[in-house]
Write a structure and sequence with these properties.
373 residues, alpha+beta, Aminopeptidase, eight-stranded mixed beta sheet, 8 helices, elongated
Length: 373
Amino acid sequence: MPFPDSVPILTDDVVRLRAHSADDAQRIVEQCTDPESLRWTQVPRDYTLAMAHEWVADIAKGWDGDGDRLWAIEEVSDGEHRFLGSIDLRPRAAGRAEIGYGLHPEGRGRGLMARALRLVCQYWFDAGGQRVDWYAERGNIASWGPARAAGFEFVATLPEHVAHGEGGLVDAWFGSLGRDDAMAPRTEWVTPPVLEADGIRLRPWRDTDGEAVEAPNHPSHFVPARAIPTADTWTDWLIRRRLVMARGSSVNWCIADAESDAALGEVLVFVHDGALADGDTAELGYYLFPSARGRGAARIAAGLAVGHAFASRDEGGLGLRRLVAETAADNAASNAVLTAAGFTRWGHEEAATAPDGSVGPADHWDLLAPSRD
């Protein structure tokens, strides 16, 4: 059967995947000229209605031959069958396929793409496929959301693996889903709650917080260099922070002044491997920009983070049993924060390897959650 009859209709009674048509062209243009599409995809920068019609014709050729398989996305409840985006299955050798997708602005933020992704992956597996791979430009959290929700495992960051829309190669995130994998999230996506006490607010980091970043002036053996952003590393640092939360391994708050909301530093609860939900122990970390020191902000922020870490999951907390920390023995300010938070120093090393590679004394701390009896 020729296109469009060759396109199987896939639906879960919320979204419907169907053949593209000429009627979709204007909304294709709207999607392709949207700022988010331009930022994260390779769509031509001067996209026109004629290009949209040419693209629909190319999609038809793919279905009529051995090319890629693309569906238009719409809501089942929409009697007007409005185009809300596209999803693209690209068959490769040995039962592997690659997936690509994008939504019209009106279709975003409602979980529609995750539904479409499950439908297409199931279509591929039912046809004998073994695996579906996902790639996105590093930093494209919006693309990782549907892949995560559909059960994809985040595998790695690949250097210079995809082309940027403005030209050149950029790093890519890579994830994969196998035929026998459950099409459900593997880990929790951590969202930092807003917490406030004594003039200090903990909140999620924002893109604009980079304006508050200050050059660090602490001894290099106190904190890993990559843990603290600088003006030059801000964008990369924020991408890494958002990724670890999207993978469930950390909750990272911006420490902010409660009155001005200006960024003062960071407090985080994290695990080095796996996800926070996998175990009962995590590590506490914190730092302040130089101008924010001396007002007790780290002490207040640590107390708020500890409270959230030990609060039960039913109460919206992390439900942890134990927190740990490690400090340089001569970091008196950090040691005082831990002492004020109730931590106990349980161990001491005279020749520990510090974050900067030097060797010196270090202290180990822990704190147990209050009994919930």
